[in-house]
Design brief:
It is built from 29 helices and 39 strands. Strand 12 and strand 13 form a beta hairpin. The protein is globular and about 110 Å long.
């Protein structure tokens, strides 16, 4: 194609069809009703046609006559008549069609041409985004798909159906129910009591299954985890605050690999127990936290002293820091603090000092030499790093850079930078450090015993040796390595002064341990240490990670429902598993159906009797219409496309999403609460479009545990304010309570905050009461007060935070002034006062400020947050901005999980909180909301080994 041809190309359009549509609308008023369902003003190619169409629809919406005279007059009033070609052109439109009978055909041509132009525009935008690459590729792909899908959406038109057709279908459904009295009318769940109360999962219903995350499987805040990329060791608290790391994890074959957590969980304060092992390891967790044992993953509460747990045999991670050799040696000697009276060590230390001094002399300008020397002498501690030795300038400078080396006793540790050294330099460091503190034995077998200045340092060295595959024992300050592990130590690291042993170990490879990724370590004690802040990490696929050099672990009801529907009733089920891999998911199905302990499948310790069960289960599952998508990140749009395709090809009766909080959203710049609200509405729309039930698994926050009762309630999904909360009429400045607004059928514009931090007027689309809930009062230092639920987000300098995440001293956003957006004569201009007594209502310079050009927000400090008991709570729905100014503070409007859901099920287990409860493995399924039936409670038995819920009555029988 030539350049001239491509330049002269005209976008797809059909002016004759556009004229036919407009002419038909002028001829027949009924044609207008048919056209507006198909075509919008922007679908017309010619601007003149677009304006004529708007004039016609304006008159139609007002209920006024639509003809040549009224349309011409309307265009003249708007000053657009000459722009469209005058009255003569409008008349020509009327004469362009003989009849309005074909108006829908003309309208579809206009729509098709418009969609083609939109495709061209979308393609241009996509190409532009690709060339600029201003954002992440994943986000650009999402935006591109959104552009295309928005065009495809134009084809999905829902038409009205006459009531006689709906009545016929309804009567047939009622007759079927009469014939099958008492049976389930929707998708059966497989639980007798639940099915009786709900009649199964009904078509088009959005079902929320919610429970606390991690089921109490948490680590104490100071548990240490090594970054598998850099070698840096951080506490789990630091990792959760950063929300990023790469972990070591075990796969189903007990092989080490790396993974990135998909979720970082702050699980509040819980009772913590310290686990001690024979090798000297210590890790502090909750009683519910599982450890890998020879019989599979077992909770700490189910493990006794003397049982074996898995620990990594190696953690092959090394950093990128490549320090000079002399500096690594000096760091080792300074860390050890003392050294043996060995000529080899003394010579090596002296050589390192000489090299360091020479480099300093060669690189330091003469004019600053004296000044630097004086500063280093002042900064250096008054200690002799190596007993009996002087403190050279090189050593003084190093001590000044690493003040931790000046500590004595239990405060002495290895400098953090050592943990990020390269493999060669880390081996060099350890060989010098061990030479200073080690005693080597050769009879009856090779053994190394090291006494360190602190127990902390002994544990750190054990971890560093683990990176070379050397397993060591630690008891207090003493680290010991013996037998084949000692051979590994000499082979990979060595000890200065024992070069002959290193040579021997390198050539004696036949006796080395076989390569394995885990070892078994016996538990020597489990002791309660107190109530502490705990955290957890969600690791997709493997669900475990290495912490404190121990292997620790980190939706079952919904999956049981899907399995029952597919296996026993042949209902096609689609499972979107964002957290668990398809292999892990199938393994759960196998365990549940075969009733085989899941840990046996993961570790391979299967009994002969398990194989026939697995074979029968595999036969049933292979015939079940279950379809699994384990995409780690997926949007509702992608789900919609995949579900449509699946329904067209195989039929579809149920969708399960595991879990809702991991669904990908396009609006990454928005707060997560708004994203969840949009996702919830989209899931409900998907269920309605496909006319099938959709189960979305959701995780409740720890606000459940803040209000006295630990049973989840519907109110825990609500984010609301009390009825006495004051909002501002943006046009008059009048103060209105939320309770009063909820009683109205129409609402005024309210003051809200734009994305550009300017106060703007926004029409609420709904104001409603959401029952009663536990509320907290936030008091600020300026006197502002607001009562809201623990879940309700307020704007802070670091984004939206829930009330439960705020504390005394937290900064929150407040309105500096509350502008009136309607023009008022000066004689009646309203004025009202802020909560602190200063005038904040001012008329802006322009009649309406909708672009956020004003910056009207300041920060206020939280003075205290106190519980206020239960009160009636309300919420507003504010489109676009998703927030409103309440009592002078900027608060978010609620998430809409509870609002859009048709059925809400909560899972509560008493043994989650109380290990001594009589209700072990008993799960309460709380039906908190049921749009079409009763609410109540059902008890099920949870078979942990099989990952399966069963009817409790059958279990007891």
């Amino acid at each position: 194609m030539s350049l001239s041809t491509s330049v002269d190309r005209v976008p797809p359009q059909n002016l004759d069809a556009e004229q036919g549509v407009l002419g038909s609308m002028l001829l027949d008023r009924d044609a207008i009703a048919r056209v507006v369902e198909l075509v919008r003003a922007e679908d017309f190619y010619r601007d003149a046609h677009r304006r004529i169409y708007e004039a016609i629809t304006d008159l139609f919406e007002r209920g006024e006559p639509v003809d040549l005279i009224t349309v011409t007059d309307r265009l003249r009033d708007k000053g657009q008549l000459d722009d469209v070609g005058g009255a003569a052109y409008v008349t020509s439109l009327l004469n362009s069609v003989p009849t309005a009978a074909n108006v829908e055909y003309y309208a579809r041509i206009v729509l098709q041409k418009s969609m083609l132009r939109q495709l061209i525009s979308a393609g241009t935008q996509i190409a532009h985004m690709g060339y600029e690459a201003a954002q992440e590729v994943e986000l650009l792909v999402d935006q591109a798909e959104k552009l295309v899908f928005s065009i495809a959406n134009r084809r999905m038109l829902q038409e009205f159906l006459p009531i006689r057709d709906i009545l016929k279908e309804s009567f047939e459904r009622i007759d079927r129910r009469y014939q099958d009295k008492g049976t389930v009318t929707g998708v059966p769940m497989g639980f007798t009591d639940l099915d009786q109360m709900t009649s199964g999962l009904q078509p088009a219903d959005l079902v929320i299954v919610a429970a606390r995350p991690a089921m109490g499987k948490c680590l104490k805040y100071d548990a240490e985890i090594v970054d598998a990329r850099t070698g840096e060791v951080c506490t789990i608290q630091e990792i959760v605050s950063r929300s990023r790391t790469v972990l070591w994890t075990l796969d189903a074959q007990a092989r080490l690999g790396t993974a990135e957590p998909s979720r970082f969980v702050d699980d509040g304060i819980k009772p913590v127990y310290r686990v001690r092992t024979a090798s000297g390891r210590q890790v502090e967790t909750t009683l519910s936290h599982p450890f890998l044992t020879p019989r599979g993953w077992q909770r700490l509460a189910d493990i006794q002293a003397g049982e074996m747990i898995a620990v990594p045999a190696r953690l092959p991670v090394f950093g990128m820091l490549d320090l000079p050799v002399y500096e690594v040696k000096l760091l080792a000697y300074l860390t050890a603090q003392t050294m043996h009276a060995s000529p080899v060590l003394a010579t090596d230390y002296a050589d390192a000092v000489r090299v360091g001094e020479a480099i300093r002399a060669a690189t330091r300008p003469p004019q600053v030499e004296a000044q630097e020397t004086r500063e280093e002498e002042r900064a250096a501690p008054e200690i002799a790093p190596v007993q009996g030795g002087a403190v050279p300038e090189t050593v003084s400078a190093m001590l000044a850079r690493h003040p931790d080396l000046a500590r004595d006793g239990e405060g002495r540790t290895i400098p953090p930078m050592v943990l990020t050294l390269t493999r060669a330099k880390l081996a060099l460091f350890l060989s010098r450090l061990l030479a200073c503190v080690a005693t080597v034995e050769t009879d009856p077998e090779v053994a190394v015993h090291c006494t360190f200045p602190s127990a902390r340092m002994a544990a750190q060295v054990r971890h560093l040796l683990l990176r070379f595959g050397v397993a060591a024992m630690v008891e207090g300050h003493v680290l010991s390595v013996a037998g084949e592990q000692a051979r590994m130590l000499f082979r990979h690291v060595g000890v200065l002064g024992w070069d002959r042993l290193r040579t021997w170990a390198r050539y004696d490879q036949g006796q080395l341990l076989p390569e394995t990724d885990i070892l078994w370590d016996a538990i020597t004690a489990v002791e309660y240490t107190g109530d502490f802040q705990v955290y957890d990490l969600t690791v997709p696929g493997t669900h475990n990670f290495v912490a404190d050099d121990v292997c620790v672990h980190n939706t079952t009801l919904a999956l049981n429902i899907a399995a029952h529907a597919a296996i026993h009733h042949q209902v096609p089920c689609a499972i979107f598993s964002l957290e668990t891999s398809k292999e892990q998911l199938v393994q759960r199905f196998l365990c549940a159906e075969a009733e085989v302990d899941g840990s046996k499948l993961r570790t391979g310790f299967l009994a002969d009797s398990d194989w026939p069960k697995l074979a029968r289960a595999m036969g049933k599952l292979s015939e079940a219409p279950v379809f699994i998508d384990d995409s780690a990140t997926i949007s509702v749009i992608e789900m919609r496309a995949k579900a449509r395709k699946l329904k067209a090809e195989h039929g579809l009766g149920l969708i399960v999403v595991d879990y809702l909080q991991m669904i990908h959203s396009y609006k990454r710049t928005e707060n997560r609460t708004q994203e969840i609200s949009e996702i919830a509405r989209s899931l409900k729309s998907l269920a309605k479009e496909l006319d099938i039930p959709l189960i979305a698994i959701s995780q409740l926050s720890r606000a459940v545990e803040m209000t006295g009762t630990r049973r989840p309630m519907l109110s825990h999904l609500r984010e609301c304010v009390t009825g006495d909360t004051v909002v501002i009429d943006a046009d008059t400045g009048a103060s209105l309570t939320v309770r009063d607004l909820a009683r109205r059928s129409a609402w005024p514009r309210l003051v809200s905050l734009s994305r550009d931090d300017g106060l703007v007027p926004v029409w609420p689309t709904d104001v409603f009461q959401k029952g009663e809930n536990d509320v907290f009062e936030i008091r600020t230092v300026t006197g502002r007060r607001l009562k809201a639920t623990a879940h309700h987000p307020l704007l802070t300098p670091s984004g939206w935070k829930k009330v439960s995440e705020l504390s005394s001293g937290s900064l929150i956003a407040a309105a500096d002034r509350l502008p009136v957006f309607k023009e008022w004569p000066d004689s009646i201009r309203p004025a009202f006062r802020s909560w602190s007594g200063t005038v904040v209502a001012q008329r802006p310079h322009t009649p309406a400020v909708l672009d956020g050009s004003l910056r009207d927000v300041i920060t206020d400090m939280v003075d205290e947050i106190r519980p206020m008991g239960r009160e009636a709570v309300f919420d507003l729905v504010m489109p676009e901005t998703r927030n409103f100014v309440a009592n002078g503070l900027v608060v978010h409007n609620s998430g809409e999980l509870e609002q859009v859901a048709d059925l809400v099920l909560f899972i509560y287990r008493e043994d989650y909180y109380n290990a001594e409860t009589e209700k072990k493995n008993i799960a309460e399924i709380i039906i908190a909301k049921h749009r079409n039936g009763p609410i109540g409670q059902v008890e099920l038995f949870f078979h942990r080994e099989h990952s399966k819920f069963v009817n409790l009555e059958k279990r007891r029988a």
